[in-house]
Amino acid sequence: MARKRPAQPPPPPAPVTADMPTISGILGAGDEPVVPSEWALVAYAGASLGRIFPLRSGGSLIGRAPDVQVALLDGEVSRHHARITLVAGQVWLEDLGSTNGTLVNGERAERVVVLRAGDRLAIGGHVLKLVAMDPLERAFHETLLDLSTKDPLTGLANRTRALGEFQTRFGLSVRYGRPLSVLMCDLDHFKQINDTHGHGAGDFVLQVFGERLRASLREADLAGRIGGEEFLVILPETDLGGARPFAERFRRTMADTPVPLPGIDLIVTCSLGLAERTPGDLDAGHMLARADAGLYRAKVEGRNRVCAG
Q1: Does the global pTM surpass 0.70?
Q2: CB neighbours (10 Å) of residue 179?
Q3: In this structure, how many other beta carbons lie within 10 angstroms of the beta carbon of residue 164?
């Protein structure tokens, strides 16, 4: 099955009219009527705690489907739960007929609602705060998030977050009968890179690997560093028919694009093991073990290849 690409958001709500609140109304009485450099939702509770979801001009979908811009992985969240729209400096929220509803400051949103900076949205087990970002505000939230969830070297999710997210997504896949694939990835001959070129070069190789991996992911995908040179990639709404081409494309990207080190362009390859959730997977650990078995096979068969477990 082909990996789905994000759908274009639906058109925005009705056009702004003279009787609608202005940007000064959104920011609060007495504030300067300036448009913030960025609007964002910040997760104050739930599995995405601390995460920043920048809101793009036009519309952003909220839900647990792979094509949304604000991905909330929770069984109480509908696939396309709500839409949040920026138009003429105003922020609008529309519940899209979700099963469990959307609360704005504790009250259920029954129609299109104008939001103000500081409003809190309760969606499933998540609480999101609308923030009018400035550079200082963004730096503060990003620092908190980085300290708790990110691997400082690669910028990918750290081990705790990656394994926790995999457990959550496995549960959602079982509950709703949706496809889920996972990749285990290991850099080939990484010890030799460190021994030959030094640990600084090894760290740079890991940074480049993290950048390339992030660039290959959809919004709903997640990649994390779970060991020294070992990585986990979670692909929701993806079966083997979509996961294998993704893995092969990324493998070729690494092999065909040398990593520039002082005095040398270093060829760095990786091996990948993949697994799709099947009814025989009794828990997330069983599925992860199959991907790890695929990775072991890829190593034994010569490295720089993709094998299913």
Answers
A1: no
A2: 17
A3: 15
Distance from C-alpha of 249 to C-alpha of 269, rounded to nearest angstrom: 12
Please choose, from the candidates 104, 69, 65, the residue with its C-alpha nearest in 3D space to the C-alpha of residue 83: 69
Give the active site residues.
Answer: 229
What three-state secondary structure class fits 43? strand
Mark out the alpha helices in 109-198 (DSSP H runs).
Answer: 135-149, 159-176, 190-197
Measured distance CA(88)–CA(16) in Å, rounded: 7
Q: Give the pair of three-digit tokens for residue 187.
A: 């850099």
Closest CA to 90 of 4, 16, 38: 16
The number of angstroms, rounded, from the C-alpha of 110 to the middle of its chain's C-alpha atoms is 29
Residue whose C-alpha is closest to residue 73's, from 188, 181, 172? 172
Q: Which residues contact 24 (CB under 8 A, 6 or more apart)?
A: 31, 32, 33
Share of the chain above pLDDT 70, in %: 86
- Average pLDDT estimate for 226-254: 96
Q: Is residue 274 within 8 Å of 288, Cβ to Cβ?
A: no
Contact 203, 157 (CB under 8 A): no
